[in-house]
Amino acid sequence: MNETEIHKPVLLKEVLEWLPAEEGKIIVDGTLGPGGHTEAFLKRGATVYAFEWNEDTLMIARERLKPYGKRVKIFPLSFTHIREVLDAEGLRADGVLLDLGLSSFLLEQSGRGFSFQRDEPLDMRMSDELKLTASDILNRLPERELVRIFKRGEVPRARALARVICERRKKCRIETTSDLVQLVRDLYRPTPPKEKDLLAVVFQAIRIEVNRELENLETALKEIPEILKPYGRFAVISFHSLEDRLVKNAFKSDERLIVLTKKPITPLPEEIKLNPRARSAKMRVAERRKDQ
Ligand SMILES: C[S@@+](CC[C@H](N)C(=O)[O-])C[C@H]1O[C@@H](n2cnc3c(N)ncnc32)[C@H](O)[C@@H]1O
């Protein structure tokens, strides 16, 4: 299998237009994944500091990026450690990219229950360092916590879903993606065109909780401006409105930054045709002020 089958980098042309990846520049890729964006930065001549917390993905990226030798340094860490690592190395970055969300590899080949279209154990941890699986969360958390998770994830009838889960788990544990799909179907009785959207939003709400995605993004949004050089650029690609809202508001209210994209950059129809998964991508870019 080649790399583009593992994952096609989203908004690649646009990322290369907005981040300065030429020779002599330092780019931080906070979400290395299988290495699509990073390889493009390396081809342009930049040095890349890359972060990735999924062990299997790291193996794929390491193999792919071998030809670039010491110009790429890979850290098996969450992007919440970027500041710590760059401080320790005494470095500041010319550009930072966060490409949030799942890679096609995690969705289709990790066997961790990210997709409602596969029957797999309900794990959903992107990294083995995370303690609670999706199944642990559904079987152990108090009902009010489940309500919070579903409300935050904008799941319709969040209270009813939490109730049904708590009723079901008294009888037997919710262990697999199929268990969850069945539960959602029983509660909402959705018609086929709506069913996919509903399942996607329920799965997403749980995945966000398991991986602490919004908390991690908030940390990064606070810390990354600190490790940018003057005029250094920070680009974030998000895939749902919860993330995009956080990015938009953080960029706008951060005195260290100038927002460069008044409206988010979205993929052209040609890209969506080749890679339908890109359709919900939104990229926002900000620049570090000179005198901050
Ligand atoms: C959309 S993919 C990145 C794809 C990559 N840009 C490419 O073109 O190949 C997102 C990746 O970020 C990783 N990831 C998500 N949250 C992370 C975090 N807090 N720290 C490090 N990696 C994270 C996921 O494991 C996944 O591999």
Question: Explain this structure to me?
Answer:
The protein is of the alpha/beta class and 292 residues long. Helices cover 47% and strands 14% of the residues. The protein has a 7-stranded mixed β-sheet with strand order 3-2-1-4-5-7-6, sandwiched between helices. α3 links the parallel β1 and β2. The protein is globular and about 60 Å long. The mean pLDDT is 96. The structure holds S-adenosylmethionine. S-adenosylmethionine binds next to α3.
Give the tags:
single chain; 292 residues; alpha/beta; Rossmann fold; DNA polymerase, domain 1; 7-stranded mixed beta sheet; 47% helix; 14% strand; binds S-adenosylmethionine
Quick structural overview:
This protein is an alpha/beta fold.
Low-confidence stretches: none
Order of helices and strands: HHEHEHEHEHHHHHHHEHEHE
> Under the CATH scheme, which architecture of the largest domain would be assigned?
3-Layer(aba) Sandwich
| Strand order, largest beta sheet | 3-2-1-4-5-7-6
**What small-molecule ligands were found?**
S-adenosylmethionine
| Structural class by helix and strand composition | alpha/beta
The CATH homologous superfamily of the largest domain is named: Vaccinia Virus protein VP39
Radius of gyration: 20 Å
Characterize the overall form. Answer: globular
Number of helices: 14
Beta strand %? 5-15%
